[in-house]
Amino acid sequence: MVAVVVLLGAITLAALEIPEVVVVRTFDPEGGVEETRVWIADAQGTVWLEANNPETTWYLRTLEHPRIEVVRGGQRVNYETVADPTPAGHLRIRRLMSAKYGLADWWVGLLFGNPRSVAVRLDPARNP
């Protein structure tokens, strides 16, 4: 039984970390920084993140302070976030994540679900 739990844990960790993962840095009014590892997708020149649920901390921080920093492939880029909490936004981000992450997306969705996930568009920051 322990071996099964360890194996499932290893599969889950691989599913979460082996595909492309970026670091999202969000900020609070006092200048505090929070780093979160998330999946990212590109579609027709637009960059997207998925907040697995609308209560996730990094997402809530972007609602108050939409400027974030994303570390991707060793590069730091500043963005302005634009949330799309609509059902259409949810379907869009689910399609993008499923297409990019495939089996890993299926596995993580099976374990954690994401029926309330929110699409977050990243626009290049003005005056970086």
**CATH class term:** Mainly Beta
The oligomeric state of the chains shown is single chain
CATH topology: Pnp Oxidase, Chain A
The secondary-structure element order is HEEEEHEEHE
Terminal-residue CA separation? 52 Å
Q: Main sheet, how many strands, which sense, barrel?
A: 7 strands, antiparallel
Name the CATH superfamily assignment: Electron Transport, Fmn-binding Protein, Chain A
Query: What portion of residues is helical?
Result: 25-40%
From the spread of the alpha carbons, the general shape counts as globular
Please explain how this structure is put together.
The chain has 128 residues and is of the alpha+beta class. It has a single domain, classed as Electron Transport, Fmn-binding Protein, Chain A (Pnp Oxidase, Chain A, Roll), CATH 2.30.110. It contains 3 helices and 7 strands; from the N terminus they run H-E-E-E-E-H-E-E-H-E. It has a 7-stranded antiparallel β-sheet. A hairpin with a 2-residue loop joins strand 3 and strand 4. The radius of gyration is 15 Å and the shape is globular. The termini are far apart. The model has no long low-confidence stretch (mean pLDDT 87).
What key attributes describe this structure?
7 strands, 3 helices, 128 residues, alpha+beta, Pnp Oxidase, Chain A
Question: What does the secondary structure layout of this molecule look like, with pairings?
Answer:
Blueprint: H1 2-17, E1 22-27, E2 33-38, E3 40-43, E4 46-51, H2 57-64, E5 67-72, E6 75-84, H3 87-112, E7 118-124
Antiparallel strand pairs: 1-2, 1-5, 3-4, 4-7, 5-6, 6-7
Helix pairs in contact: 1-3
